[in-house]
Amino acid sequence: MNCYELTKMTWEEVEASLKQVRLAIIPVGAHEQHGPHMVESCDAVLAERMAVKLGERLYPYAIITPTVNMGVSTHHLNFPGTISLKPTTLIMLLKDIVSSLKHHGIERFLFLNSHGGNQSTLDVAMNMITEEMNVEVYYAKTTASAKNAIAENVHSTLFGHSCEREISEALYLAPELIRADKLQRGDIQEPGRWTQLRPGKALKGFYRYEEMTKNGCIGDATKADFEIGRQIVEEALDNLSSEMMKLIKEDSKIL
Amino acid sequence: MNCYELTKMTWEEVEASLKQVRLAIIPVGAHEQHGPHMVESCDAVLAERMAVKLGERLYPYAIITPTVNMGVSTHHLNFPGTISLKPTTLIMLLKDIVSSLKHHGIERFLFLNSHGGNQSTLDVAMNMITEEMNVEVYYAKTTASAKNAIAENVHSTLFGHSCEREISEALYLAPELIRADKLQRGDIQEPGRWTQLRPGKALKGFYRYEEMTKNGCIGDATKADFEIGRQIVEEALDNLSSEMMKLIKEDSKIL
Amino acid sequence: MNCYELTKMTWEEVEASLKQVRLAIIPVGAHEQHGPHMVESCDAVLAERMAVKLGERLYPYAIITPTVNMGVSTHHLNFPGTISLKPTTLIMLLKDIVSSLKHHGIERFLFLNSHGGNQSTLDVAMNMITEEMNVEVYYAKTTASAKNAIAENVHSTLFGHSCEREISEALYLAPELIRADKLQRGDIQEPGRWTQLRPGKALKGFYRYEEMTKNGCIGDATKADFEIGRQIVEEALDNLSSEMMKLIKEDSKIL
Amino acid sequence: MNCYELTKMTWEEVEASLKQVRLAIIPVGAHEQHGPHMVESCDAVLAERMAVKLGERLYPYAIITPTVNMGVSTHHLNFPGTISLKPTTLIMLLKDIVSSLKHHGIERFLFLNSHGGNQSTLDVAMNMITEEMNVEVYYAKTTASAKNAIAENVHSTLFGHSCEREISEALYLAPELIRADKLQRGDIQEPGRWTQLRPGKALKGFYRYEEMTKNGCIGDATKADFEIGRQIVEEALDNLSSEMMKLIKEDSKIL
Amino acid sequence: MNCYELTKMTWEEVEASLKQVRLAIIPVGAHEQHGPHMVESCDAVLAERMAVKLGERLYPYAIITPTVNMGVSTHHLNFPGTISLKPTTLIMLLKDIVSSLKHHGIERFLFLNSHGGNQSTLDVAMNMITEEMNVEVYYAKTTASAKNAIAENVHSTLFGHSCEREISEALYLAPELIRADKLQRGDIQEPGRWTQLRPGKALKGFYRYEEMTKNGCIGDATKADFEIGRQIVEEALDNLSSEMMKLIKEDSKIL
Amino acid sequence: MNCYELTKMTWEEVEASLKQVRLAIIPVGAHEQHGPHMVESCDAVLAERMAVKLGERLYPYAIITPTVNMGVSTHHLNFPGTISLKPTTLIMLLKDIVSSLKHHGIERFLFLNSHGGNQSTLDVAMNMITEEMNVEVYYAKTTASAKNAIAENVHSTLFGHSCEREISEALYLAPELIRADKLQRGDIQEPGRWTQLRPGKALKGFYRYEEMTKNGCIGDATKADFEIGRQIVEEALDNLSSEMMKLIKEDSKIL
Question: Which domain of life is it from (chains A, B, C, D, E, F) (predicted)?
């Protein structure tokens, strides 16, 4: 299928594409530990693969930028290899990308983010960039909108990092990220302060990932499955593409 | 009831209190429009009142700092009187408060926030302050944990700003904030781009509040009620105090 | 008397007031120790009360913003409870306030400051904000212009912090700040390096407040008196209001 | 051949590798136009491929980090698609990467850079990071040290961007970057201010790339050749690996 | 007379001097218009000359650093040639100087400043540098302490910039700065907003120098005199040196 | 000869000169150790003298600003007396100078730099200032373009800091900088890590100057000679002035 990927285009090809493009999708990932069964580029690669698939659905209105391949991963820093950007660094990086693309005439942006730890920074970035540059900024967690497929297929009470959901997505999108012979459940540490700080609790708070899981993953990766991944990814793409297409079409210049 | 409020104490009284204090509660509000029936200091005042009530429940372990009386309100700026801080300003302000209090020996902090627009900035602040200062940081939306009372009493599908929930809280905590003769429903603007961007939707995105509501409020303030406010506030205080007390007690220095 | 206080107004009320408003008064205080007889919010509260009184005199030309309730108090940090902002934080905070209000059409600002330690930062802020935002900025120490009343009534050679002058002002403006049973003279530490660094000396230099006074106050608070406070405050208000009114009236839009 | 690539490793694998690793190689590229015959990710991809090849030669002493896939490309911004980071953003990004890896015990770093426009920023970054973090920092232009192979094979007087040298390197390292049917000479614009500002001239100065070349490339890409690329790349790798191995071995912990 | 001037010393000479040096004097000037009868480097040169004279008196305890030859001159910017630093730039510059000298073992600093427009920035710099670097910082206006000589010899009600006081100082310290054939009185513009904003008035506020004086000077330069300059300078040096010597001697390492 | 030197002009003289001026030359030096035979202000003084000589040749098109008399000298910091600015400080300083002069109508700038350690920072500054302020920025190493004179007269393989080249330049431009009785060769430390990091090597890297030379100089200062200095300086001035004059004349406003 067709997709405008900036990394794979010459400037003449970009110039031609810009006649139709109404949106830049900026894949935002992370470089962080994903337990013993997933390599550390997981989030960067999944964000990029999702961006391309979304770009295919939004063709010829979307163009995919290079991937932001590191993110805010402070809570994983005690696992070897994790690299973490300060939130202010990530914001400056996104500002520069948006500013450059605005120079080329693009005024609508989607940060397509695969890593939960980036969400609040992206929200702040969206706020600041909108104010300072007068552009339209959106962000989304890659597969968060696949509510049905997740509800049906993911049964761990605690999931969201190198779990059956993420491994399933990777089986569908990027199986090379997985050490299939190492798949294991999260080695959850209970009781623990972290149990008070999960989404939905009265308090939010910072905790190190090793407080929660000794092997760095949660959920049950052994339950991961290509078909589950396919359902989650495709449902998310359905949602993201239809929602974004509505926004693009409101723009009087199209249709 | 007893409560350590820094604004009402002399240094000698602070010195004495610090022998028992294990937590500083920093009330974080905003200065922004709240429709025709609520004054603009609403969030600052409610955060402060909640902080004092929580401080009473956590006495003698908590001390209440001066209130951060302005916040991130970019989306309200087109309504007269709204003041908005850049996220980076709010973060620096919180850093300085935490740093000063750490100098006095306090190492656990709760940002008690009444304004949704601050949440992502507080999350980023928590992340950065924890890393840079080696302290324990938490944050909470004042009454978000009152899930039962809200489910029973708040029936608008769209609520959360100068709605029946917030006005009810104010009737209980600070009725002077309300223009009782001006209570009205949100003047919702539909259809609109904002409908695609509310919590739970596939995309998050920045929109101006006037895109959503012409009078600056949502929900139905005419349904507000003191008793509803009491239930919401007290349920939230139950949750916040019991969760925080667990964290304080894990600290071997107590009990 | 009438006064436009932003914290007590709805957006519709602000909108109406802005037809006449020519000045925003930003009260700037501090949160710092004031000896054993005054609570730590002293400066924030006094700045706010003075601002309202000045706003009454300048009605309907002035509007009062929320109070900047913490300031630059580095020299008091070794007294428990003191919170100090970095000068750069205070400047950013003021920038954001001014920028927001300029968005609403206000172009003249007065930082009404009760705390000596803020003065140089306010001067720098005035300089930078004027340059960057093309607005008219003024600042004033709340009661510094009451030269006659001070000369007649304040007799300590060393005064200016929780002394008879400040306690008298508080007796008139905010008696709840005072621990009347604890009033005492400053416990001055002589000789000391600080004696070389007071206003009027050849050198200026940083010193900690405890180098100068063991109990955190100077002067003689036991000599404070409501009537002295009244005279100082009212003389200052006479001066501030008449000077500011001249500036407002030069503005061709008025009279 | 073996190479430690962080993006392809789990945390357990990283942990094991760190027992031997003495150097992190950070590939630094750019995202910028490369004329009609090369895609815009050229520099990012070539830096990454070179890093892996260098990592193979330095195995098991070197580990390769994720690629910095955008750089300082201000001078190319008028060609569609180019993205440029502010120098300060690139410096902050490198600081965060180095800081994270130092947390894991690595204290020697090589910024392996394929883009001339990054060199001065990397020099500044090296200076600042060394001072602030007490680590050992080096940087190198990927193939600049291949002096013999370049002298023998590259005959354009003006070369260095999407020229026969760079296309030859790509033919050897990443032929998918090339539009083989579009290969063309630089469309050089003479006379021009830029002729006074090339390396070796008395003055250095900023000029836009389109001042120098209308199609965005210089030199003569039609002369590019796999074998030339092989010679340049391998000579550079010989030099980089032997020089770096000397530095690693001076470190008493090895051999 | 002897004076340690860093600009005139080799590193070996500096090394020897540091055995006795207890203070670095940093001359801080400006580059700004001084009316038709004084060149624009006036403040930089006078600060430097005063620093050397003070260094002679404090020999061998003081060392003179290079001169900060530009300062905060926003209010003079509309006169051709004036260069103004942002306050934050001046602060960073001073931080770097202090930090470097602390590296060499110096822990006491005097910013010897000839330009009124720098004073509040120096106060802020002193505050921040003291906090961040744990050094002892002082600042002084070069001749402000010569109260007797000024009271006796300077009779203009408005003076302080290229007036009889400053020209007299220059006649004594650096007569080459003066255009003797151009000496003139300030061309004062009255009435004017500035009259409300001079020292001692109820309000402080930013005004452009051309609002106050058309030719850029105030006072009456035609009354300037070498002997007046001598008296002012020498009285100031008496005060500065005796005060500073007291501070140096308190330091137990001396005498 | 005539030269517009801002430090020696009144504002009226500047105003008159600006009718013809097309370029501001900003001398950029350093304050750092130069071995036992040269004082630490060497670079600042040489940059200033070169700027004046270049200004004479470009009269009446060039104006000389005050000298940036400190620079980036991290690598010399372990020699007593050296002062080093952070690169970001130097950039901010240059921004403020350029911004002020742009206010006066100047739009072309040359950073005339005598210190190698500043070059990359100047390159970054040029990049950022050009982008942000839309001015024309150039920079040059003072005598680097004197290739013939250097090739003929300088025979040390390692030279460039307080060597026969620099001392010769000083003999011609500023002999007061030299301790003629202390002239000596560099006390080179071999072998050493630095030998791998000199210009032309495969790797660039940070090293401390004392790693390379014990006495702080390189080359052979005893071979310095006034005539060599004259040839180097004059050849460089020939090149700089002719190149710059071409750029000035392209500007249609001239000739």
Answer: Bacteria
